[in-house]
Model the fold of this input.
Amino acid sequence: MSLTWGQIKTWTSSGLSSYAGVLATKRALIETQSATVSQRISSFQGQGAAANSLREQMITAKNKLDDVAEELGQIRSAVTGAASSVGTVEAAVKVTLATATAMQCSISPIGKSTCHIPPSPYTEAYRRMAEMTVDLLVKKAVMLATTADTTFSAALRSAGMPGLAKTAASSKSSKTHDLSPTEQARFKNMTPEERAKYWSEQSEDQKRHLCDRYPEMIGNADGVEAWARDRSNRLNLGKKMEAARGEVDKYREQYENAWPWEKSAIKEKLDHAREALASYEKIDEALKNGVSLEDYQHGKKGEPISLLTLQDDGLRVKAAVAQGDVDNAKHVATFVPGISTTVDGSLHDYIRQTGNLRQAAINQGGLQAKDVATIAWLGYDAPGEASLGNAKDIASPKMAQAGSDRLAGFMNGLQASRDYGAGDAHMTLVGHSYGSTTSGMASTKVNSGVIDDLVLCGSPGMGTYNTSDINVDESHRWVSGVPRGDSVQGMGSVLPGSKIGFGHLGKNPLDEDSSFTHLSSDATGSPLYDPTAPASKPHNFNFDNHSIYLENGTETLQDFGRVVAGVK
Done:
């Protein structure tokens, strides 16, 4: 559940601080009891079966007391940290309330400010400025509270799973081992931050064992290192290709022998199996153009290419393919495409385009190849081809909302894995077409500081109508839109509740008040650019230049490269 201003403005840290003291006292009492039992064990001189049994029971009791003391210590540590975080929230709330009072604003329980200065032509600009200022302070306070709540919850969950914690703590020196069903469930339910911490505590042998034993679980686990996800997904890919071939053969035979009235349903299953098989084969082909990330990190020559996501839930196969060393690169860019995107039909083209982006960043930033990694993230179900039949999906934010949840988890996971690995990377999120809507929505859901730069291009709408929702510094929000042949621009940006327009995909990032800074819109250097296309207006319905932004020869590509390299 999302926190609201009405909930957090009453938070106090005093109760948590007091409870931390109570926990410390209880822990000290348990430790004293454990020490007493330990002394009695040492002084016990009994012999025989009964005496040995009693001694074992005392040892068991001492171990249980130690476990309780350890867990109380973990909980106390979590509560102490929460008290400090809540204190920060308290201070932010006080500043917000003081600012609101000074600016003659009130704040609703949902966090919306209203300036009470009588309206006039002379006060309207101040009113907007005052409300925007207070809204930003409210958002900051809520964000701090959300982080505090998430961190506290994670710490309490960790304290409540001693089995998994002990496994992690001991695994550095122990042999490899499988996870129990309970431990697997806990791993799957971890946040990316919890999972990154757990993963960092495993030995290298155990990490490889988990990859090989649970490839589907590890391959799609946000927070796990990229090399491990790649290793797991490559194993899983082979299994899925084999299974898909079996499905194709099965449904083909069923179709050939079916009654006429059965053929339609079987044909649908056959087509789905064929599409899945084609997707897996395209991924397999792509991976053969480089070396695995694990091999690269262990000294093998060649360009690293890695499979960071492999899922077959939803409408179709989903994948994310990276070029470069995601675990160690200084700059990491994730590209999210839009409508009509499928793995079987689009993956190779987007790998080519993200390769262009990587090279542009290297050139513009004066960087080495090892410094930059790019990811083609086809990790969500995008709307199908631009047609009247798919108009409902294209005009709706539904797929973007679902995709943005996945994308936010993926981005948080990249950051979390780096926090326990090579350290922070400069991360850029680039969204194109409907993917810009998905990316914009994801930018409202990621943890603060995860996305360093956000680039939207060919955008129907940025996924929100409130620019303050975006968790990216305003000076690092970028937009590009070619002047001709891209009618997608602004196509879905109508006001909330309006029935005029094509969709409800958020504000047009090209608008002057969008908070986005304009990058180059010059794509004339590419032979693919059509200079005769009509102006990029939704009503012209022309898309000849819609996919031109990352093509070689364009200034748009070079400008995007400057952003990715951190020199813009």
Remarks:
- Strands lie at 105-107, 113-115, 305-311, 318-323, 331-336, 372-378, 426-432, 453-457, 477-480, 517-518.
- Residues 22 and 76 are 9 Å apart (CA to CA).
